[in-house]
Amino acid sequence: MLDWIFEVANQNQKILNLFQSTGAYLKGHFRLTSGLHSPEYLQCALVLAHPKHAETLGRCLAEAISAIAPERPTLVVSPAMGGLIIGHEVARALGVRHIFTERDPDRKMTLRRGFSVQSSDLAVVIEDVITTGGSTAEVVALLESQGARVLAAGSIIDRSGGTANVGVPRTALATLEVQTWDPPACPLCAQGLEVVKPGSRPV
C-alpha cells in the first residue's frame, strides 16, 4: 500500500513522484481538453493502469470528499473518459453507485446507457484532472437539471492552482500551478513546435 498518500505534508510532491515513476508526467507541447496549450501534461491513465494505485488514490479521494461533503453521498458521477476509473474507485470506497456522462454529437454533456438520477440522489462529481473546471461544472449542471443534489466535486490533480469554480465545494489530492496559454499566445506554437493532444478527446 502507498501509505505516503495519507501524509498531508508534501502530498503534492509525493503525488508528482507517483506520476513520474509511472511515466505519467510528460513534458513537451500539449493541447489540453480545455483548449489551452501547456508545456506539461499529467496522464492519469498511466497511473490508474496500476490497480493498486487506482484503489489507493480512490480511497484517499473518497476520504477528502467525505471531509467537505455536508452529507453522505449516494452516487458518484464522472465525465467520460478521464474520470471513469478514479470515479469508480471513489464509489467503491464510499460503497455507492457510479455512473458516467458522455458528450452527444453536439458536444453537450448527457446521460446515456440507461443511466438516470433521482431527486433523492446526493451526488459527488469525480474527475482525474481539473484545469478550468468546465467539464465538472457541466456535469454538476446536468445532475441538478435532473433533480439530483450535488454535494461536492473532486479530482486527483487540480491544475488551476485552486482557482477553478465548479459551483460546489471541491477538493483535490494535489494542487498545482501549471503554465498554460491560449493558442494564439502560445510561445511553443511560435517556435513551430508540434502540439500533441494526449487526452481522451480528439483535437
- Please identify, by name, the CATH architecture: 3-Layer(aba) Sandwich
Q: Quickly give the structural class.
A: alpha/beta
The ordered string of helix (H) and strand (E) elements is HEEHHEHEEEHEEH
Major beta sheet, strand line-up: 5-4-3-6-7-8
**Nearest-angstrom radius of gyration?**
17 Å
* Number of self-contained structural domains: 1
- From the N-terminal CA to the C-terminal CA, the straight-line distance is 37 Å
Main beta sheet strand tally, sense and closure = 6 strands, mixed
Give the overall pLDDT as a whole number.
89
**Content of β-strand:** 25-35%
List the quaternary state of the chains.
single chain
Number of strands: 8
Low-confidence stretches: none
Question: Which of globular, elongated, flat, extended, rod-shaped describes the shape?
Answer: globular
CATH topology: Rossmann fold
Please write the CATH class name: Alpha Beta
Overview of this structure, please?
The chain has 203 residues and is α/β, with parallel strands linked by helices. It has one domain: Rossmann fold, CATH 3.40.50. The chain is 30% helix and 26% strand. It is built from 6 helices and 8 strands. The chain has a 6-stranded mixed sheet with strand order 5-4-3-6-7-8. A hairpin with a 5-residue loop joins strand 1 and strand 2. Helix 3 packs across helix 4. The chain is globular and about 55 Å long. 39% of the residues are buried. The mean pLDDT is 89.
